Amino acid sequence: MSKTLEEKKEIVADLKEVLSQSLLALVIDYQGLSVAEISDLRKRMRPTGTICKKAKNTLMRIAVEGDSKWQPMTEFLEGSSVFLLVQEDMKSAIKTYQDFQKATKKTELRGGVFDGQALTEADVKALTELPTKEELMARLAGGIKAIPTKLAVGINAVPTKLAVGIKEVPGSLVRAIKAVSEKENSENSEAA
């Protein structure tokens, strides 16, 4: 049963809305998946902040038309497509899809789009090696936290070294006076 023009316009508007909130789009050839397997994919992807959309390539092509951020997706629009529109955690979403792909062995990642760039399957895999937002924030916080600690250690070292130096002055003075007096005594003994 064919969809009416109004229904197609609603689908395109929905796709545009979801894309506007997405960071990454993955295009998957889902041929051979059962309805239950597609439902399983949707269920697995939901916790990663990913929306799994099944739409006709023509409607997705209309949805990305003129949008430089998503336009590169058109090169992947062929055959039967499912779109994974990642809105939160890219790394988890990609790994979750890879786990699903290993389990079913029925899907193929055609490519993806991130920040206006078309991504190959290798590019998508490389995204899983990037640190997450939380990991980056933790590293940054650790670096910022280390600065005052090192500064405090350095500032605390100054009085300690100064105190050691001041404490050493009387001892050095006594040794110097003793050395001078011994030298004078030895010179006086030689003169006598």
Automatic annotation (TrEMBL):
Write the protein's name: Large ribosomal subunit protein uL10
Q: Which domain of life is it from?
A: Bacteria
Molecular functions (GO terms): large ribosomal subunit rRNA binding; structural constituent of ribosome
NCBIfam families noted in UniProt: PRK00099.1-1
Q: Name one GO cellular component term.
A: large ribosomal subunit
Single Gene Ontology BP annotation:
translation
Q: Which InterPro entries match?
A: Ribosomal_uL10, Ribosomal_uL10-like_sf, Ribosomal_uL10_bac, Ribosomal_uL10_bac_type, Ribosomal_uL10_CS_bac
State the oligomer form and interacting partners: Part of the ribosomal stalk of the 50S ribosomal subunit. The N-terminus interacts with L11 and the large rRNA to form the base of the stalk. The C-terminus forms an elongated spine to which L12 dimers bind in a sequential fashion forming a multimeric L10(L12)X complex.
Protein family: Belongs to the universal ribosomal protein uL10 family.
Which gene specifies this protein's sequence?
Answer: rplJ
Arranged from A to Z, the UniProt key words for this protein are: Ribonucleoprotein, Ribosomal protein, RNA-binding, rRNA-binding
Q: Which residues form the signal peptide?
A: none
Relate the protein's function as given in its record: Forms part of the ribosomal stalk, playing a central role in the interaction of the ribosome with GTP-bound translation factors.
